[in-house]
Amino acid sequence: MRAPWLSVVMPCFCAEPWIASSLESIAAQRMDGVEILVIDGSPTSATLDIARRYENRLALRLFERRDLSSWQAKTNFGVEAAAAAHVCWLGADDVWLPGRARSVRAWIERAPEACLHLASSVIIDRRDRKLGEWHCPLPEGDVASELVITRLLVQNFVAAPAPVLRKDAWLSCGGLDPQLWYTADWDMWLKLATSGTVMHHDAVTIGFRIHGDSLTSAASRNATEYAAQMQAVLDRHLAHLGAAARNLEPVARASIAVNTALAAASAGNLRGLIPAGLEVLRLGPGGIRRYWRDSRILERAMPRVLAKLRGAL
Q1: Is 1 part of any domain?
Q2: For residue 311, how many other CB atoms are within 10 A of its CB?
Q3: Which of 180, 213, 246 finishes a domain?
Q4: Which residues of 231-259 are buried (b: 16+ CB within 10 A; e: fewer)?
Q5: Are residues 103 and 207 both part of a single domain?
Q6: What is the domain range of residue 151?
Q7: What is the pTM of this model?
Q8: pLDDT (tens digit, 9 = 90+) per residue, 120-132?
Q9: For residue 30, with 0-12 CB atoms within 10 Å meaning exposed, 13-18 middle and 19 or more buried, which class applies?
Q10: How far apart are CA 78 and CA 61, in angstroms?
Q11: 171 vs 77, 81, 176, CA distance in Å?
Q12: pLDDT in tens, 168-191
């Protein structure tokens, strides 16, 4: 293959149930110039054995890296090894929707200088059934960095497989923070938003899968650590906002309280729901409107409720 225009980084660990579906969704795009880097830390070769079935249909680069134990380390390695100037990453349990490759190519051609291209996603269950759509609360096109940051600090509204970014911008930001086992992607979007142009595309091009073994589900089992991960990112980036942080901080902290309470509730502990709800009410009408707009609470919560009702978590 000639020099690729896009590198797709796939960090994997025991991804045998999902990786065929993920790679098939890319192969179905039938578009040249896309390389896929599979970085696998599994104890056996089972994941890579499945990936090798696609070597005649995809430009695959396979890495067996049992020394890279975290998804952050695998993703950082993949971005550094990428041959293209633009990169995205794809969880081995997530999928590309039809037309994703053509859409991304158009985004890059329209604004090759952008550090970050953001877009929406569909949430799917373990059986590929659509549970809902997850949108970014941003206007279409070139978005001011401060607007992205202030809305993103209320809630990470970005599904990790959706964005496309410049490799050099990622490297300049230092890559994913290995200490943030749950919120490293949120931290990265914020770092990139401070680095240059951000484009938002009102398009749904990926399927973000939720299931009982996903990182989100695992995080809900330890609500205290889950909250600490979010607070670490908020504290880190509030400092860059100056006076704007004064009005933003109460809304962002209320959002963390709600997220933590919902995580605990999903594990059977309902005690935090009322205090979290009261914290939102104390924001007043303006703060509540801001929380409702930026948190995308229903778009995030209802698909998980539906998946539980279907027994698909």
Answers
A1: no
A2: 8
A3: 213
A4: ebbbeebbebbeeebeebebbbbbbbbbb
A5: yes
A6: 6-213
A7: 0.93
A8: 999 999 989 999 9
A9: exposed
A10: 10
A11: 11, 11, 9
A12: 999 999 999 999 999 999 999 999
